[in-house]
Amino acid sequence: MRFFDFLKGPDINQGVKEYSTTDGAVLLDVRTPDEYRQGHIPGSKNVPLQSISKVAGMIDNKSTPIFVHCLSGARSRQAAAILKQMGYTNVKNIGGISAYAGKVER
């Protein structure tokens, strides 16, 4: 690991790849519904950061793998921290869709 590697955020492309090979995983997009409609990763579920508590009604099993992303990685970092406080044990912030190289759907 190079000295400044810790400054780099998570790699969303690697995160989506990991999500797609993880059984039962959920890909959570915490952007606003408007941002989500403008383009999102296929298979992602939209739960805006300000409504993150609604995840409790969607995902019963607290050990479900949850891969969280937003536009830049800031909201997903917050969302991941909140989800961990809610008792979810397998949460990963994968960063921002702005760096995503794959297909998006509208």
UniProtKB/TrEMBL annotation:
Pfam families: Rhodanese. Residues 21-105 form the Rhodanese domain. This is Rhodanese-like domain-containing protein.
